[in-house]
Write a structure and sequence with these properties.
- This protein has 235 residues and is α/β, with parallel strands linked by helices.
- The protein has one domain: Spore Coat Polysaccharide Biosynthesis Protein SpsA, Chain A, CATH 3.90.550.
- 28% of the residues lie in helices and 27% in strands.
- The chain is built from 6 helices and 13 strands.
- The strands form 4 sheets. The chain has a 7-stranded mixed sheet, with helices on both faces. A two-stranded antiparallel sheet has the order 2-3.
- The protein is globular, with a radius of gyration of 17 Å.
Length: 235
């Protein structure tokens, strides 16, 4: 299984005042810090290596997670430094310690899907990027993707096109080389990288049938906690 980069360096302003003093990764969900659930799920899915991209209150995350021993996962850290690097800049900085291909996961996402299946499709497609997508129909949040025949035709988080029925699900498999043309220092957003490769026709899509869960809002925390608790009852 490829290593997973977890993007956990943001300010989480939507959750103020809670995140004034703790990072979003350590918010209590279903009785435990969220990253505890996230790492447990990744281990269950076969992941053995994680690189945590951290910035704001990142030392608190490292203090709790340590080297990942309690989850049976090797955990390393990539700190933004004095300036928050954004999602793209953080991955670019972390990529020096990563193999040629790796996965990216947002630090507020709980994605209970077939990670091995995503990887198998990535290798079959022979493209530099595969994005997981969900047929959202503007329900959970605004849709931002046009997808057809297994290819992403448009990805835009700012302009809303009525033909956009899908939303980015939150798990990406990517080749390190796609960051070669981006700066080694300074902030930029991962969506900028993805959009450029989408426009070039080089991004495949893996369609996920079940909804995603995330803790980016109070409602999201509630729904994610309910899902995790229900999942425990079934396992």
């Amino acid at each position: 299984m490829l290593p997973v980069v977890i993007l956990a360096g943001g300010l989480a302003t939507r959750l103020y005042p809670v995140t004034n003093t703790i990072p979003k990764a350590l918010i209590i969900v279903a009785g435990r810090p969220f990253i505890d659930h996230q790492l447990s799920l990744l281990k269950e899915k076969g992941v053995n290596q994680v690189v945590l991209c951290v910035g704001y209150l990142g030392n608190e995350i490292e203090k709790f997670v340590g080297d990942g021993t309690q989850w049976g996962i090797e955990v390393k850290y990539s700190y933004d430094g004095d300036e928050l690097l954004g999602t793209g800049g953080a991955v670019k900085k972390a990529s020096v310690r990563l193999p040629e291909t790796f996965m990216i996961l947002y630090g507020d996402s709980y994605l209970d899907i077939d990670y091995e299946g995503v990887l198998q499709q990535f290798y079959a497609e022979k493209l530099p990027i595969i994005m997981t997508v969900y047929n959202n129909q503007n329900t959970l949040e605004a849709s931002n993707i046009i997808m057809k025949d297994g290819r992403i035709l448009r990805y835009d988080k700012t302009y809303k096109d009525p033909d956009m029925e899908y939303v980015d699900y939150g798990l990406i498999v990517i080749r390190k080389e796609i960051f070669d043309t981006f700066p080694s220092q300074g902030p930029f957003d991962l969506s900028l990288v993805l959009s450029q490769w989408v426009d070039a026709g080089r991004v495949a899509a893996y369609v996920v049938e079940q909804r995603f869960y995330e803790i980016g809002s109070v409602q999201g925390i509630k729904e994610t906690g309910e899902y995790i608790n229900n999942r425990k009852l079934l396992t």
